Amino acid sequence: MRKKIILDRLEQNIESDSAKYRTVSQVKRERIHGILERDRKTRNINIRIREHDLARLKQRAEEEGVPYQTLISSVLHKYVSEKLLDEQDILKSIALLQGKS
């Protein structure tokens, strides 16, 4: 018995547009793989952190269901890529939007 594969909307769009895709040269493919490989590289570092902060990080990581070092790495990545959101800024934005309504 064969299982029917159900595609989500994104996958359906990719399937329907597959004729529009074209292969890339070996040189371009190697360049893309190089970029991706550099992005995947990690480096071990040592950092001094207050015990209380580390304990809270471990607690928050447990609540999120991730290892604490993964949580730290994620927060740092969001900070440097300017994707870390400040709760107070969000609340101010919501208040402004509600005031305009």
Structure, briefly:
Helices cover 63% and strands 0% of the residues. It is built from five helices and no strands.
Q: Any overview of this molecule?
A:
The chain has 101 residues and is mostly helical. It is 63% helix and 0% strand. α3 crosses α4. The protein starts with 8 loop residues before the first helix and ends with a helix. The model has no long low-confidence stretch (mean pLDDT 88).
- Low-pLDDT stretches are none
User: In DSSP terms, counting alpha (H) and pi (I) runs of 4 or more, how many helices?
Assistant: 5
Main sheet: strands, sense, barrel: none
Strand percent estimate: under 5%
Radius of gyration: 22 Å
Mean pLDDT: 88
Span between termini: 56 Å
Q: How many structural domains are formed by the residues?
A: 1
- Counting DSSP E segments of at least 2 residues, the number of strands comes to 0
Helix content: 55-70%
Element-by-element helix/strand order: HHHHH
Structural class designation: mainly alpha
Main attributes of the structure:
0% strand; 101 residues; extended; mainly alpha; 5 helices
Write the layout of secondary structure elements.
Elements: H1 9-16, H2 26-40, H3 51-64, H4 68-80, H5 87-100
Helix pairs in contact: 3-4
